[in-house]
Specification:
The complex is a heterodimer of chains A (about 230) and B (about 120). Chain A is α/β, with parallel strands linked by helices and about 230 residues long. Chain A has a six-stranded mixed sheet with strand order 6-7-8-3-9-10, sandwiched between helices. The relative contact order of chain A is 0.18. Chain A has nine helices and ten strands. Chain A has one domain: P-loop containing nucleotide triphosphate hydrolases (Rossmann fold), CATH 3.40.50. Chain B is mainly α and about 120 residues long. In chain B, about 60% of the residues lie in helices and about 5% in strands. Classes of the chains: A alpha/beta (about 230), B mainly alpha (about 120). At the A-B interface, helix 6, helix 8 and helix 9 of A face helix 2 and helix 3 of B.
Chain lengths: ~230, ~120
């Protein structure tokens, strides 16, 4: 079943075309990597899926519904930039999530935060960028969503924490749920992916199953990416 | 344990290879229950669908058996394992031999090098 369907979307800012006719789907139960260089349009697509930007043309359906109240209920979204900017403690943010999302699992959040060595009584301003990103990931993965959209989840964390983050992602998305993940750290992420979509210059350059691509090209996804995207 | 996969080969093939070697070396014994898909996925840090695919192929080869409610087990058929062992060894020798040939080392020298090993 298609959980996410992106059909012929276009987006321009002023006269600059950012997304030029992109289509792809994410099936239920799949982990899909949306890969591209900085400025390729990844975050623009993610923002359109999350109703933070409107489409100029085309259509996005999430679980059969157009983008809006219904789609937001089933998407758990990790933005590229942290929104944890207040002076609260982690525990206050947990309460906020509990009030805000029906599908939020507080026990799971507490477990994940502990697992990531984070102190729920610590105040956000006292935390490093990497710690805040971990808090946010733990909260996002604690929702029982249908589609998890993670925009650069490894962005601000040090290499030794990356493995832990990937494990957290792998072990915490519900069965039948799907994951759309953007990253420029392809080598780190490729082993958890089912499918990849390479975008460049606002277009899909290559898309397919990772194992099929590895077999066909006799190369890692990271290498294939560097071959096709200059 | 983190698992070091080669980037240019499908991961499911590398998982098949790993599990076969675990069985041949008796780290997984005949009839022993295997870890679940989720456990393997965590152990290797790979996509669960990739593990599923590897286990499916191993089942087609008769190396593992699914008991619908209990999970997956190593076969109890010794002949199957013997065959896997033979094939695996042949493949390893073939690879080794080819890499020696690549270096321009002759068969006689290969035999000499191998027999000098304890």
């Amino acid at each position: 079943m298609e959980l996410l369907s992106v059909k012929n979307i276009k987006k321009s800012f002023d006269d600059k075309v950012i997304i030029n006719d992109i289509s792809f789907t994410v099936e239920s139960g799949k982990i899909v990597g949306l890969l591209g260089k900085n400025g390729s349009g990844k975050t623009t697509i993610i923002k359109m899926i999350n109703d933070l930007l409107t489409l100029d043309e085309g259509e996005i359906l999430v679980n059969g519904s157009k983008i809006g109240v219904e789609s937001k209920k089933v998407i758990s979204y990790l933005p590229e930039r942290s929104y944890l900017e207040g002076s609260e403690r982690v525990i206050d943010i947990i309460k906020l999530f509990k009030d805000f999302y029906e599908d939020f699992d507080e026990q799971k959040a507490l477990f994940l935060l502990k697992d990531l060595d984070l102190d729920i009584n610590q105040k956000l301003p006292k935390m490093s960028k990497g710690m805040k990103e971990k808090v946010q990931l733990a909260l996002v993965m604690s929702r029982h969503a249908k589609l998890y959209v993670l925009d650069e989840p490894l962005g601000g964390v040090d290499p030794t924490s990356r493995e832990k983050i990937l494990k957290t992602i792998l072990s915490n998305f519900d069965e039948g749920a799907s994951l759309l993940i953007t990253t420029h750290l392809i080598a780190d992420v490729e082993k958890i992916l089912d499918e990849v979509i390479f975008i460049d210059g606002g277009k899909v350059i290559l898309a397919g199953e990772v194992e099929t691509l590895r077999e066909k090209e006799n190369a890692s996804i990271d290498e294939i990416f560097r071959r096709v995207i200059k | 344990m983190s698992f070091d996969f080669k980037g240019n080969t499908p991961i499911y093939l590398q998982i098949i290879d790993y599990i076969k070697k675990q069985i041949i070396s008796k780290k997984y014994r005949l009839g022993e229950k295997l870890p679940s898909v989720r456990d393997f996925s965590m152990q290797f840090e790979v996509n669960p669908n990739t593990v599923q695919k590897a286990l499916f192929e191993l089942e087609n080869m008769g190396i593992i058996i699914t008991e619908s409610t209990n999970g997956k087990f190593v076969t109890t058929d010794e002949a199957v394992i013997e065959k896997v062992k033979k094939e695996t060894i042949e493949k390893m020798v073939e690879d080794l031999y080819l890499s020696f040939l690549d270096l321009g080392i002759k068969k006689e020298e290969v035999i000499e090098i191998l027999s000098s090993k304890e």
